[in-house]
Amino acid sequence: MKPEWLDFLKDAGAEIEDNQVTSFGNLQREQRVIHSGLTICDLSHQGLISVDGKDAADFLQGQLTNDIRDVSEQHSQLSAYCTHKGRMLANFRIFKRDESFYLRLPQSQLEATLKRINMFILMSKVSIRDASNALVRIGVSGPKAHEQLSSIISALPAVVDAMTRANGYTIIKCPGTLHRYEIYGELEAMKTLWGQLDVNAAPVGASCWEGLDILAGIPTIYPQTAEAFIPQMANMQLINGVSFQKGCYTGQEIVARMQYLGKLKRQMFRIHIDTSDVVNPGEKLFGKASTSGQGPGEIVNAQMDSEGGYTALAVINIADAEANNLQLNDENGPRISVETLPYTIEEKQKASQ
């Protein structure tokens, strides 16, 4: 996080740990307001990797699950970076600003991803670096987010994944049950924007933004779950994070085989966990009647629910999810209930045919 931005957030009342905003003094209230109110959130807990150079697009095309040719100053995309066995090492949003591609992913994933992807540059004319301090980034969410932003920024994207560049800002429309936007810009411009939004919007901590991702069914891969899932297990194909027409990339053979020849036995569900204890990515699910030799499932990401307990995304054996008789960790663990996602497999499959 830029030191000047850090000082600005502290002056605005932010409580900060490990370079991320935990809250603005009342986390429980913040967790409630995200469901119906206008909120703003610092996104410094998300890092940025920049990819530049003559061969940048071709290089990324051979590494990632989505078609980089669709990324422009008008369109961003979700994508993933896989092993040769098709297991996701990381996933991220990709956007383009000026001549640079940016990959937005958790700070905890940045170093390992940067190190690995640099190994494959070889003779390509590409420069890949940590660009987390290059742009300040915030999230804006709420039923009146579009109305509020329209009074400040001249052009906003109309559909999910669309992007605009206006008034010095890069604005991306994100999936969500409410209007949601990610906004990127230079330090002084972002200070001004925050000040304008802060008049009517409630500032919230980083966990609240991830809570909105969970409600939207958008997974985040963390170090605890790196190499745990192929993209389809985490519904990446359902949220436009995988292209099956683009051609070869690392892990493509496994991903394509699952799509066209395999039978997906696990997929991602939204769940509620009846516990007040912290729930972490990678924690295992337990099902007494489960017949899966690998266990019934695993937590992808989780955050506290404003109504109590934890809301989470979990990759679960489909039969066990349908039985809906699960617990966290073991037979003495808290009860888990399977809840609905804002999309269904049937709807998305029909839309892609």
Structure characterization notes:
The protein is an alpha+beta fold. It has 2 domains: 1-261, Probable tRNA modification gtpase trme, domain 1 (Gyrase A, domain 2, 2-Layer Sandwich); 265-353, Aminomethyltransferase beta-barrel domains (Elongation Factor Tu (Ef-tu), domain 3, Beta Barrel). The chain contains 10 helices and 19 strands. A 6-stranded mixed beta sheet has the order 10-11-12-9-3-13. It has a 6-stranded antiparallel beta barrel with strand order 14-17-16-15-18-19. The protein has a 5-stranded antiparallel beta sheet with strand order 5-6-7-4-8. The longest helix has 12 residues, at 107-118. The protein is globular. The model is unreliable at 347-353 (pLDDT under 50).
Distance between the termini: 43 Å
Please indicate the percent range of residues in DSSP E strands (runs of 2 or more).
25-35%
Mean pLDDT: 93
Number of domains: 2
- The CATH architecture of the largest domain can be given as 2-Layer Sandwich
Total beta-strand segments: 19
Main β-sheet, spatial strand arrangement: 10-11-12-9-3-13
**Main beta sheet: strand number and arrangement?**
6 strands, mixed
Any descriptors?
353 residues; alpha+beta; Gyrase A, domain 2; Elongation Factor Tu (Ef-tu), domain 3; 2 domains; 19 strands; disordered C terminus
Quick description:
This protein has helices at 3-11, 27-33, 56-61, 107-118, 145-150, 187-197, 206-216, 252-260, 318-323, 345-352, and strands at residues 15-17, 20-23, 39-42, 46-52, 77-82, 88-97, 100-106, 127-130, 136-142, 163-166, 169-174, 179-185, 202-204, 266-273, 284-286, 297-304, 310-317, 326-328, 335-339. By secondary structure, the protein is α+β, with helices and mostly antiparallel strands.
